[in-house]
Specification:
Distance between the termini: 28 Å
Protein name: Acetyl-CoA acetyltransferase
GO molecular function, one term: acetyl-CoA C-acyltransferase activity
Structural class: alpha/beta
Keywords: Transferase
Radius of gyration: 19 Å
CATH superfamily of the largest domain: Thiolase/Chalcone synthase
CATH architecture of the largest domain: 3-Layer(aba) Sandwich
CATH class of the largest domain: Alpha Beta
Helix content: 25-40%
Shape: globular
CATH topology of the largest domain: Peroxisomal Thiolase, Chain A, domain 1
Strand order of the largest sheet: 3-2-4-7-1-8-11-10-9
InterPro entries: Thiolase (IPR002155), Thiolase-like (IPR016039), Thiolase_C_2 (IPR055140)
Length: about 400
């Protein structure tokens, strides 16, 4: 049954920017977010005052939120949103900014995400991540997501028949893609043998299954198509978006995400199907979540992710181009920017700006977000279908 979703005709996304990531930084999150905003207005050729909407995601901005950041940035937006949804933030920021522009609440919205990474930042973040973390995880020595994803990974392996070799194939392919990305922090090739022999972190998770925390920022602009054309900016069209929170609460442990609840409408609104997608960027804090998203977004049946992985190359010049910038597993995870990484890459691919990692003839891209892991599940899911301006 239709829920009355309406399209995004006339609203576009443009100006993907990345403030190059670094392993550690003495700067604040405010500095990184300000750098992203500066890059956006510089590349768009607009004055800061013309940006009348702002959407912000950050884990290390505290005690400020988006409203406090406006004073640091010298902005006076008439539309403001703060999206603390981790890996789903990029898609959710896009869809809410698009609705703001569509309704006339803002003309140009800057969507920015960024975090710093001091020596102690990650420990502080995971200790304060959620009430689940404070009460049920961190006190028992399982600080951070590794133990939770070990639980999810073991369950998926048992249910779907996935092997470490299957997860390794994804990691190796993403590293090959990352070697074509100057912003990726992982600069060395990765072999399957190296992946399999890496040290155990939380069985069955090993070293190369985990993202590396770092500092950085990303951003993009949302505006009307006529505004983008007036500014002579390459842009992408928004075909469809979805978000869902705390899906399938009856499942004792997560094996499926909220994408499955809205997938039919997701493709119906866009007028395309999974077979029309030229590239996919999935939130990849661990490879098991890659497989879950591939299944839940209709590229194969549930539980068939391992076989799908065995049939494809996932490289930029091969079959099913996937996380074509290397993903977080080889680029690094700059906090909430991890939720923007796939969005930025898709905008670059669909505007022909991806350089040596450009996927030939890419017309339609899918971005998938997954965020806010508690003990046994991630509770935010989102996805967007984007199209090249002439597609």
């Amino acid at each position: 049954m239709s829920t009355g979703r309406i399209g995004y005709d006339g609203v576009v996304a443009t100006v993907p920017v990345t403030v190059p990531y670094v392993r550690y930084s003495i700067h604040s999150a405010h500095w990184w977010l300000g750098k992203a905003l500066g890059a956006l207005i510089g590349q768009a050729g607009v004055a800061k005052q013309q940006v009348d909407g702002l959407c912000v995601s950050s884990f290390t901005l505290a005690p400020d939120t988006a409203v406090g950041l406006t004073q640091h940035l010298g902005m006076s937006p008439r539309w403001l949103d703060h999206i603390p949804m981790g890996g789903a933030s990029g898609v959710i920021g896009l869809r809410r900014a698009a609705r703001a522009v569509q309704s006339g609440d803002a003309n140009i919205v800057a969507c920015i995400a960024g975090d710093t990474n001091h020596v102690d930042s990650f420990r502080h973040t995971v200790s304060q991540f959620s009430r689940f973390a404070q009460d049920a995880v961190y006190p028992y020595g399982a600080g951070g997501p590794n133990a939770s994803f070990a639980l999810l990974t073991r369950h998926y392996m048992r249910e779907a028949g996935a092997t470490r070799e299957d997860f390794g194939k994804l990691c190796v392919a993403q590293r090959a893609n990352a070697l074509l990305n100057p912003n990726a922090l992982m600069k060395k090739p990765l072999t399957l043998e190296q992946y399999l022999e890496s040290r155990v972190i939380a069985d069955p998770i090993h070293l190369f299954d985990c993202v590396m925390p770092c500092a950085g920022a990303d951003g993009f602009l949302v505006m009307r198509e006529e505004q983008a054309r007036k500014l002579n900016l390459p842009f992408v069209r928004i075909l469809s978006t979805i978000e869902r929170h705390n899906a399938w609460i009856e499942d004792p442990i997560q094996m499926r995400g909220g994408w499955t609840m809205d997938r039919e409408e997701f493709y119906s609104l866009a007028g395309v199907g999974p077979e029309d997608v030229d590239l996919m960027q999935a939130y990849d804090d661990y490879p098991v979540i890659n497989m879950m998203q591939i299944e839940d977004l209709g590229f194969c049946d549930k539980g068939a992710g391992p076989e799908f992985v065995r049939r494809h190359s996932f490289t930029t010049d091969g079959s099913f181009p996937f996380n074509t910038n290397g993903g977080q597993l080889s680029v690094g995870q700059a906090g909430a920017s991890g939720g923007y990484l796939g969005m930025i890459e898709t905008l670059m691919q669909l505007t022909g700006a991806a350089g040596p990692r450009q996927v030939a003839d890419a017309r339609i891209g899918l971005v998938s977000g997954f965020g806010m892991i508690n003990y046994d599940r991630g509770i935010c899911t989102a996805a967007a279908l984007l199209a090249r301006s002439d597609a």
